[in-house]
Amino acid sequence: MSLTEVAKRAGVSTATVSRVLNQASVVRNSTRQRVMRAVSELNYHPNLHARSLAKGASRTIGMIASNLQNPFFFDIFRTLEADAHAHGYEVVAANTDYDAAHLVRSVRLMIGRRVAGLAVIVSEMNKDLISELAASKLRVVFYDVGTPCRTISNIRVNYRRGIERVVEYLHSLNHRRLAFVGHHAALGPLSEREKAFIETVSRYAPDTEWRTLATHDALEGGQQAAHEILSSGFNPTAIICVNDIMAVGVLREVRERGFRVPQDISVTGFDNIKLSEFAYPSLTTLHIPRDRIGHLAFSMLVPESARGKAPGREIVIEPELVLRDSTGPAARATA
Amino acid sequence: MSLTEVAKRAGVSTATVSRVLNQASVVRNSTRQRVMRAVSELNYHPNLHARSLAKGASRTIGMIASNLQNPFFFDIFRTLEADAHAHGYEVVAANTDYDAAHLVRSVRLMIGRRVAGLAVIVSEMNKDLISELAASKLRVVFYDVGTPCRTISNIRVNYRRGIERVVEYLHSLNHRRLAFVGHHAALGPLSEREKAFIETVSRYAPDTEWRTLATHDALEGGQQAAHEILSSGFNPTAIICVNDIMAVGVLREVRERGFRVPQDISVTGFDNIKLSEFAYPSLTTLHIPRDRIGHLAFSMLVPESARGKAPGREIVIEPELVLRDSTGPAARATA
DNA sequence: TTGAAAGCGCTACCAG
DNA sequence: CTGGTAGCGCTTTCAA
Question: What fold does the segment set B57-158+290-319 form as a domain?
Answer without folding.
Answer: Rossmann fold (3.40.50)
